Amino acid sequence: LSADRTQLPLLVGPWRSGDRMAAGRGERTIKRILSDAGVPVYRRTIEPILYSGGKIAGVFGVGAAGHLTAQPGEELLVITRRKKTDKGDISHGKDHDGSGYPENPVH
After folding, report:
1. 94 Cβ contact partners less than 8 Å away, ≥ 6 residues apart
2. pLDDT for 11-68, tens place per residue?
3. pLDDT tens, 8-17?
4. Which residue pairs from 9-12 have beta carbons closer than 8 angstroms and sit at least 24 positions apart in sequence?
5. Omega prior to 102 cis, within 30 of 0
6. What separation in angstroms does the CA of 65 have from each of 37, 46, 68, 79, 91?
């Protein structure tokens, strides 16, 4: 996200049927964006959405709204979400093997 154009605070929440986000040329529904990104049907209703200034700023793991996508030379605002380990603990650390889980999860 563009740090300059993103309004704080950022909020995370669910999306509602019919919600739209600026993507590419024009707008698309969140349902369509998730479908096009290959998100499985059973996950689409639970994927969190990032809100900035009361508008959808992005979809985790998919992308940012077109008007907030950082351009060359702009300061970046990088948002990440923690993944749970297979034991249900929250992970703290870096993902070194591409699995989405750190090598040394906190227990």
Report:
1. 102, 103
2. 888 888 888 998 777 889 999 999 999 999 888 888 888 999 888 999 888 888 888 8
3. 888 888 888 8
4. 10/50, 10/51, 10/52, 10/57, 10/79, 11/50, 11/51, 11/52, 12/48, 12/49, 12/50, 12/51
5. no
6. 14, 19, 5, 13, 27
Rounded to a whole number of angstroms, the CA Rg of the chain reads 15
Bridge partners, 21 (sequence order): 28
> Residue 11 is inside which H or E element, if any?
strand 10-13
Q: Could you tell me the CA-to-CA distances from 53 to 10, 41, 73, 88, 99 in Å, in that order?
A: 8, 28, 23, 32, 33
**Token pair in block for residue 30:** 């969140």
